[in-house]
Design a protein that fits this description.
The complex is a heterodimer of chains A (284) and B (253). With 284 residues, chain A is α/β, with parallel strands linked by helices. Chain A has a domain at 131-195. In chain A, 36% of the residues lie in helices and 21% in strands. A 6-stranded mixed β-sheet of chain A has the order 5-6-7-3-8-9, with helices on both faces. In chain A, strands 2-1-4 form a 3-stranded antiparallel β-sheet, with helices on one face. In chain A, helix 7 (211-228) links the parallel strand 6 (199-203) and strand 7. Chain B is α/β, with parallel strands linked by helices and 253 residues long. Chain B has a single domain (40-67, 88-252), classed as P-loop containing nucleotide triphosphate hydrolases (Rossmann fold). Chain B has helices at 54-62, 89-95, 115-125, 130-143, 160-172, 190-205, 217-223, 241-252, and strands at residues 7-20, 26-39, 43-47, 69-74, 82-83, 100-103, 178-182, 209-213, 226-231, 234-239. In chain B, helix 6 links the parallel strand 7 and strand 8 (209-213). In chain B, helix 3 (115-125) crosses helix 4 (130-143) and helix 3 (115-125) runs parallel beside helix 5 (160-172). The longest helix of chain B is centred in the C-terminal third of the chain and has 16 residues, at 190-205. Classes of the chains: A alpha/beta (284), B alpha/beta (253). At the A-B interface, helix 7, strand 9, helix 9 and helix 10 of A face strand 1 and helix 2 of B.
Chain lengths: 284, 253
């Protein structure tokens, strides 16, 4: 109530689009679910994602589901700043009270957001971590980027984070390259959350892990989202992950959003032909 | 009973048609125009053969199924009535919990959470302070005879009947204004079933509006203040439990 001008969402994405190759709008006419492809015959460009819009509030997780090549990771990467978007708008409630266009920020300012506002957890820990550095060193790097200077403070905050993400502290000074896949994901979570960002983007955070390890990481993520009241976007092809973490989701196919709804509704009463096939395949 | 001021949910001309794109675009009409009002302190039990639309009606009210047409007007604790059919996903997510709850037949077991934790979190989710939720969770689990040695065991390893009691405890702690019950005692032995029915009966005394599906007539006759008989996605009869159940038993004989 002390900040009357702030919107009720934390992250707002409007009309986001990414075209690989010539950004020729004619590519939109022969791509998408009804054309069965995201590659335009007319222009040769690939419409990886187009016209994607959603909002996420604090304490809420939104799922983005689809098969590989559907454009879901592209959406995440355009929001994170890993890829330049071709069209659309991304705004954050805490940046300029939600009025600043994130896609127009300078690269340095954009990188800074990754420390303070919008953390990313990748499927491949090597993207979010430096494997040649210790777990403690990885977390410390993020804290240093956030302006922490006192060694003792950094060390104690890093220990706190790593114990919260269930990394054994006796391994804190080992190189991440010596860690198992599940442990690397836990370190990646600790690093992402180091400076208490209010938004986290998770891209297939448990894909590729053994089932029992994945269950543990999933459970940790769910508890973190709940306890920290984060606004989260969870990108996954796995309904189990989407069902456990999210209340609402969007379904992507050939670069477009084909359906959106409450997660339980999308699983039990999918409407679009593609969503029905996807759910049927997951259930069989 | 017919005081409209006290109506918690007012269902009007509700339709649900499923279009199955994976099976030649076939369509199935699950609900064909349902009108039903449930008041606070009223327990309305849905009866009828399987496929009559009972569970579909519960799921359409909770919006696990998206209704095809019609309205579901919910009067929340504060503020104006909202049409659950027309509400945005985010609005509906906000109403779930304190205003509308759904207890299914099965606990969606959460891998690394114990029974006590699951029930406590449900209470906190519906706005209880944590200490209060812990006390209420302990009361509910004791009341449902869940052995205290199982409270911190991960719920995935519990038996079917134990899971169902955890699910009922989680669904009824700090009860929502409208509670949808879908076969909540189906897996319970007689003694545990009695405890569960007593707990559900108390909800009505507390003023909760309950809309339920039970497969046994005994539970309906003991809990319901009104029984609604469904047939082919419509309401065929409704009235006092004794009256409707007599009709049903007549059909069964």
């Amino acid at each position: 109530m002390t900040e009357p001008n702030r919107p009720d969402w934390m992250l707002k994405v409007e009309g986001l689009g990414k075209i690989h190759g010539a950004p020729d709008r004619r590519s939109l006419h022969d791509t998408g679910p009804e054309h069965g492809t995201s590659k335009s015959r007319l222009t040769g460009s690939v419409v990886a994602a187009w016209n994607v819009s959603f909002e996420v509030a604090a304490g809420e997780a939104l799922g983005v589901i689809g098969e590989s090549g559907s454009g879901k990771s592209t959406v995440m990467r355009c929001i994170a700043g890993d890829q330049p978007a071709t069209a659309g708008s991304v705004r954050l409630a805490r940046v300029g009270d939600g009025a600043t266009e994130i896609l127009d920020l300078e690269p340095a300012a954009r990188r800074r957001l990754r420390v303070d506002e919008l953390a990313v957890v990748y499927q491949d820990p090597a993207e979010g971590l430096d494997l040649r550095v210790t777990a403690g060193g990885n977390v410390a790097e993020r804290l240093t980027a956030a302006g922490w200077r006192h060694f003792g403070d950094i060390r104690s905050r890093a220990s706190e984070l790593l114990s919260r993400t269930e990394v054994p502290l006796e391994r804190m000074d080992d190189l991440v390259a010596t860690y198992s896949g599940g442990m690397r994901q836990r370190v990646q979570l600790a690093k992402a959350l180091a400076n208490r960002p209010p938004i986290v983007l998770l891209d297939e955070p448990t894909t590729g892990l053994d089932a029992s390890v994945a269950a543990g990481v999933l459970d940790l993520i769910r508890n973190l989202l709940e306890e920290l009241g984060l606004a989260a976007v969870v990108v996954s092809h796995d309904f189990r992950v989407i069902e456990m973490l999210t209340t609402r989701c969007i379904v992507m196919h050939h670069g477009r959003v084909v359906e959106s709804g409450l997660t339980d509704q999308l699983l039990e009463d999918p409407h679009h032909p593609y969503s029905q096939r996807l759910v049927a395949a997951a259930r069989s | 009973m017919n005081d409209l001021m006290n109506a918690v949910v007012d269902i009007r001309d509700l339709h649900k048609t499923f279009v199955l794109h994976t099976i030649d675009g076939r369509s199935i009409e699950a609900l064909r125009g349902v009108d039903l009002t449930v008041h606070g302190g009223e327990h309305v039990a849905l009866a009828g053969s399987s496929g009559a639309g009972k569970s579909s009606l519960l799921k359409c009210v909770y919006r696990t199924y998206l209704p095809t047409a019609g309205s579901v007007l919910l009067t929340p604790r504060v503020g104006a009535a909202v049409d659950l059919v027309a509400s945005s996903d985010a609005e509906l997510a906000g109403l779930r919990g304190r205003e509308v709850g759904y207890v299914s037949q099965f606990l969606r077991a959460e891998p690394r959470r114990g029974a006590f934790d699951i029930v406590t979190r449900a209470g906190v989710f519906r706005g209880m302070p944590r200490d209060e939720a812990r006390d209420a969770a302990a009361d509910a689990l004791r009341r449902l005879n869940l052995d205290e040695s199982l409270w911190d065991v991960h719920a995935t390893v519990l038996s079917g009947g134990e899971k169902q009691r955890v699910n009922l405890a989680a669904g009824t702690i700090s009860p929502p204004r409208l509670l949808l019950l879908d076969e909540p005692v189906s897996a319970l032995d007689p003694a545990n079933r009695e405890a569960a029915l007593a707990l559900i009966a108390d909800l009505t005394l507390q003023g909760v509006a309950v809309l339920s599906v039970f497969h046994d007539l005994d539970a309906m006759s003991r809990l319901a203040t009104r029984v609604v008989l469904m047939r082919d996605g419509r309401i065929a009869h409704q009235g006092a439990p004794a009256h409707v159940l007599e009709l049903l038993e007549g059909v069964a004989r």
